[in-house]
Protein: Crossover junction endonuclease MUS81
Amino acid sequence: MGAGREHKARGALLADLARRLGASAVEARSLPLGDVLWVWRTGSGEAEQEVLAGWIIERKTFGDLSGSIVDGRYDEQKIRLLEAPGMDGVIYLIEGAGPLFGVTAADDEQHRGGGRGFGQRLLARSLPPATLSTTAVHTQLISGFHVVHTTSTPHSVTVLVAMHEAICHVGSPGRREGGAVPYRDFAERTQKSCHARVFEAFGRMLRVVPSCGPEATEALVDEFQTPQALAAAFRDSSDTDLLLRLKARARGGRAPVSAAALAACRELFAA
Structure:
């Protein structure tokens, strides 16, 4: 979460959860991926094992979401979440007092204006509400994740408590087909590796390309994985062939990368 106020906010959230669920149900732990993860403990003593309950939450404030889109972490995190083992569902919990879905043009204009100069907007690295709204919709409809909007930390706590109770009602995943995934396997497979860092760097490179938004970046990184692979594809294929290739892999049959974005990528990576 970063330093200062973010650490205090995390501490307050954990304290509220422990108060409402009981201290034994809440544990502060450094996770390789996500912000909230449910695990079941089975056995006892040396035979005790932790297994995934199947749900993970990535929690972001409006500011966190905006910053992660700008610097490329948003795309890298989504790819790792898509590849995480043992997940029945991924939830993006987006926390902020303003509107998220259905943002109006007036809201967007107010964000861009408001008496703030260009330098102030640049230093804040804050994206307009319409961009965050579009990102949330893409996360839900294109990536297949659940998106929950809360207005404050207490509201987030209420959602997490309800989620915890629902998971407890379902019970241990050991009875499900395929069994449960041990937490140790999850941690080993989702920790950042050299390969993940290449993904992240590649995603950040693509995000500075004109017309290459989050959806296009995700599609290109997922398909080619490294700048070298993308450059090789440009050498061996036409833009038309690559657009058809990307469209064939896309969910819903809609091309996630525009011709303009691909042409800009060709200029950068195949020059």
About this structure: Residues 153-170 form the longest helix (18 residues). The beta strands are 36-42, 49-61, 89-95, 146-150.
